From TrEMBL:
Reaction(s) catalysed (UniProt annotation): GTP + AH2 + S-adenosyl-L-methionine = (8S)-3',8-cyclo-7,8-dihydroguanosine 5'-triphosphate + 5'-deoxyadenosine + L-methionine + A + H(+)
Keywords from the named record: 4Fe-4S, GTP-binding, Iron, Iron-sulfur, Lyase, Metal-binding, Molybdenum cofactor biosynthesis, Nucleotide-binding, S-adenosyl-L-methionine
EC number, as in UniProt: 4.1.99.22
GO MF annotation, one: GTP 3',8'-cyclase activity
Name assigned to this protein: GTP 3',8-cyclase
Lineage, top ranks: Bacteria, Pseudomonadati, Bacteroidota, Cytophagia, Cytophagales
PROSITE patterns: MOAA_NIFB_PQQE, RADICAL_SAM
Length: 329
């Protein structure tokens, strides 16, 4: 049996982004509308047992890293029990998390005990009022304190900032300056068309505009080595403790080295964030499929993975783009 997921372009997919819920306690404008979200019914969600079982199949097929996403993972009850269960998979090399900063002190301690040390926090402004305008929630102090607590506990923290020319360009330079005395990695993302409204204009603040703007303030910034399969192009200001990066999330210049596969909380399997679901593993699993049949389903999906995000998007032109809270990023 094939033990690795390799697509027709020779790319090995060994990184699973696993969404555990479509629900979130924030309402960021670029992710979902303020009101009128149709969250899935609980019975449609994969149970933790189903999530752990499917994760084990991906691991058997060569997945070495799993990132837990949402919605917001920590709004789902029992998340720490699931992470404990998942961390016992012996062939899994790394578990990471993406959160909006809704992590309690107790949960931080529990994550450290499990050895889950890498966390991405979505934070789009360092200004309380702009934070409220973006998230539609007045919780800036709570999120910022969570970030500080994570760093104090020795976690590797990355801050993800979606840049919108009408919302938060005033925060770009303060975010870079934040890396002077903190070992943070700040990543600026191009806005993507997954806001749940069906309306989207290509971002004016693309990766080129972002880089040129930052260079005006930090002309001595230098390129640093990117991690393998990195989606961000990374830089550092000499003398600063941390780094910053730019993710061309809409321009998709990193597709050639993609090693990701995505499973939504309802079982939708995507080989590209921009493409349609290629199968629903929840339905296949609940239909009584065997381990072999499920793994064959996954292998076939990967075999047909598109060359890049533009090719994948072309296949889903007639399908309304879902909210990022459902897709899991």
């Amino acid at each position: 049996m094939q033990k690795e997921l390799i697509d027709r372009y020779g790319r090995k997919l060994d990184y699973l982004r696993l969404s555990v819920t479509d629900r979130c306690n924030f309402r960021c404008y670029y992710c979902m509308p303020e009101e009128g979200m149709d969250f899935v019914q609980r019975k449609e969600l994969l149970s933790y047992e189903e999530l752990d079982y499917l994760a084990s199949l991906f691991i058997q097929l060569g997945v070495k890293k799993i990132r837990i996403t949402g919605g917001e993972p920590f709004v789902r009850k029992g998340i720490m029990g699931f992470l404990t269960q998942l961390s016992q998979q012996p062939e899994l090399k790394e578990i990471t998390l993406t959160s909006n900063g809704s992590i309690t002190d107790t949960q931080i301690q529990d994550l450290a005990t499990l050895g889950i040390r890498k966390i991405n926090i979505s934070l789009d402004s360092l200004d309380k009022q702009r934070f409220f305008e973006i998230t539609r929630r007045d919780r800036f102090e709570e999120v910022y304190q969570c970030i500080q607590n994570l760093m104090d506990q020795g976690f590797v923290v990355k801050l993800n900032c979606v840049v919108d020319g009408n919302k938060n360009t005033e925060d770009i330079i303060p975010f870079v300056r934040l890396t002077e005395n903190s070992p943070l990695s700040v990543r600026f993302l191009e806005e993507m068309p997954f806001n749940g409204t069906g309306k989207f204009e290509p971002p004016r603040w693309n990766h080129i505009a972002l880089l040129e703007y930052i260079k005006e303030f930090f002309p001595n910034m230098r390129k640093v080595l990117d991690e393998k399969n990195s989606t961000s192009v990374n830089y550092q200001v000499p003398g600063f403790l941390g780094t910053f990066g730019i993710i061309p999330a809409f321009s998709r210049t990193f597709c050639g080295t993609c090693n990701r596969i995505r499973l939504s909380a309802t079982g939708e399997l995507r080989t590209c964030l921009y493409g349609p679901p290629v199968t629903n593993l929840r339905d296949v699993l609940r239909g009584g499929a065997s381990d072999v049949a499920l793994m064959d389903e996954i292998i076939q999906a990967v075999a047909n993975k598109e060359k890049d995000g533009f090719e994948a998007e072309a296949k889903s032109k007639k399908v309304p783009k879902k909210s990022m809270s459902f897709l899991g990023g």
